[in-house]
Amino acid sequence: MSRTGNDRVGDIDLRLLRAAVEATGEAILITTADLDEPGPVIVYANPAFTKLSGYDAAEVVGRSPRFLQGPATDRAALDRTRAALKAGEAFQGEALNYRKDGTTYQVEWLITPVRDAGGRITNWVSAQRDVTDRRAFEDRQALMVRELHHRVKNTLATVQAVLNATMRSSVTMAEFSKAFGGRILSLARTHALITEDEAQVASFEGLLRAELDAYDEGGRITLDGPRLKLPSDLAVPVSMALHELTTNALRHGALGHPGGMVVVTWRIEDDPSGPWLAWTWNEHDGPPPTLPTREGFGTRLLNKILTAQVSAEVDIDFDADGLRIHVRLPLGRR
Questions:
Q1: Is residue 162 scored above 70 in pLDDT?
Q2: Distance of CA 147 to CAs 40, 206, 221, 233, 300, Å?
Q3: Which of 71-85, 157-171, 203-217 is least confident?
Q4: pLDDT over threshold 70, residue 207
Q5: Taking a C-beta distance cutoff of 8 angstroms, is the pair 318, 291 a contact?
Q6: CA 270, CA 275: separation in Å to the nearest integer?
């Protein structure tokens, strides 16, 4: 640009340029050209930068932008920035900076050189924006995609196991179709509950209600326990167990009898290894339970899948007035 007056660059008044820079929402820093310590030195910071960093302009002018960095700042990102600037190139990148109050923010910057008539770099101009929320969202999305891949893989394995077990325990094609269809629908309901929650978890009570609410006529179903969220790797096997217990109660237990009732209670137990979920499935006022003549799919699921997949402890009692199932499973390690 050609200089046409002390306060003009080309046809633009420098006061207008300054007003534009100070009005923009982008944080702007202008530094000296020297890259080696103690440089570069900040010579100008606009109001958007002071708002972003918490520092007044007087607190930053004369200091190197390095003072904004801290222990969690990625040194590799800074090295890439320095390498580009040393080559005289503009550079766009990100880094973690520290505000005056000690909090951190992820900053995206575009640093460009300012050259004199001879091509020598005299200053660097850095336009910056806070991308903390965007980066957190992107990281969350990436995590959810990884969890989804993991869940899909586990689900396909679960479907295969359910298919094989249903085929072994079914006598007729109609019996197979009904049993397998019910189990897949239960699995689908569970995944719907998990997917609807941003944290990809399902409440234990929600899993119970998904299976039992349809049969809660006249107070036949009682649920009692604290609010509890289960991650997907626990929710899926637990929901399958609840589906089998519900199906069994309809065919052979309390829900197949007009006066039968189901009471499910649960609590969180402290353990040196971490919290455990303890829950009891209690059927009463139905037909007297009979010991199975062979191990059905539901029993295999309770005794093997729950035990193998979630390290559960399962105790099955065929009491005189109904079935009692006691389950304990670890919720996580401290």
A1: no
A2: 44, 21, 34, 10, 27
A3: 157-171
A4: yes
A5: yes
A6: 5
Bond from prior residue into 237 cis (ω within 30 degrees of 0) = no
Longest pairwise C-alpha distance within the chain: 103
Q: What is the per-residue pLDDT across 237-292, written as a single tens digit (0 to 9) for each?
A: 888 888 888 888 888 788 888 888 999 999 999 988 889 999 999 998 876 665 44
- The pLDDT of residue 291: 45
Element holding 173 (H helix, E strand): helix 173-196
**Tokens, residue 327:** 């389950």
Angle, to 10 degrees, between the axis of helix 132-169 and the axis of helix 173-196? 170
* Length reported for the chain: 334
Residues 6+ apart with CB under 8 A from 329: 234, 238, 276, 277, 306, 310, 311, 312, 313
Tokens of 55: 């520092």
H or E stretch including 169? helix 132-169
Residue 54 φ then ψ, to 5°: 85, -5
Residue 206 is encoded by which pair of tokens?
Answer: 């929600």
pLDDT in tens, 167-194: 766 668 887 777 777 777 777 777 777 7
Q: Is 272 left (phi over 0), alpha (psi -120 to 50) or beta?
A: alpha
What is the C-alpha separation between 91 and 82, in angstroms, rounded?
Answer: 9
CATH: 3.40.50.300, 3.30.2170.10, 3.40.710.10, 3.30.565.10. Which one for 135-330? 3.30.565.10
Tell me what the mean pLDDT of segment 30-37 comes to.
92
Q: Which CATH architecture has domain 3-130?
A: 2-Layer Sandwich (3.30)
Q: How far apart are CA 238 and CA 3, in angstroms?
A: 76
The DSSP code for 101 is T
Cβ pair 269, 328 in contact under 8 A:
yes
**Intervals of CATH 3.30.450.20 along the chain:** 3-130
